[in-house]
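Researcher: Let's do a round of design. I'm pasting the structure tokens now; please hold your answer until I've finished.
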């Protein structure tokens, strides 16, 4: 595939509060809303990366509840950064629950962090995130592979 600079392992974490609202972050790199997500570091498990990324970005402690899916389709998983770098992500998406911490922007990667009603998500959402969210809300036993 042309124009892709790198392939990276990514993680994304769907977090719902007691009112079933979805936690989203407004990313500082592209100014769009998205599900807390990030890269897997060398020597790290995908679940460990998910827990670390959520802590870094939201200050929340979480427990992974289940695997939502693994996403690798270039049509939705290729991301162009503002600096021109284009990365194809293979993303492992989890559903998690909050076990502690106090919600706050805990990183220079986030402009804002807040919960949204599922029916009232922001319009400026990253292109791959609605699919992850829809899959999480499908309440399916088996993980999606897309």
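Researcher: That's everything. Go ahead.
Model: Designed sequence:
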């Amino acid at each position: 595939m042309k124009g892709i600079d790198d392939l990276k392992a990514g993680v994304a974490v769907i977090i719902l509060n007691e009112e079933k609202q979805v936690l989203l972050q407004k990313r500082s790199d592209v100014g769009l809303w998205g599900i807390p997500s990030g890269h897997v570091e060398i020597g790290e498990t995908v679940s460990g990366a998910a827990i670390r990324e959520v802590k870094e970005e939201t200050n929340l402690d979480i427990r992974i509840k289940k695997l939502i899916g693994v996403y690798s389709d270039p049509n939705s998983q290729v991301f162009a950064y503002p600096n021109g770098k284009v990365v194809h992500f293979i993303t492992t998406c989890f559903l998690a629950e909050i076990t502690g911490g106090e919600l706050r922007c805990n990183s220079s990667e986030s402009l804002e962090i807040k919960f949204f009603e599922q029916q009232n998500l922001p319009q400026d959402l990253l292109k791959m995130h609605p699919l992850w969210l829809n899959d999480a809300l499908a309440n399916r036993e088996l993980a999606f592979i897309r």
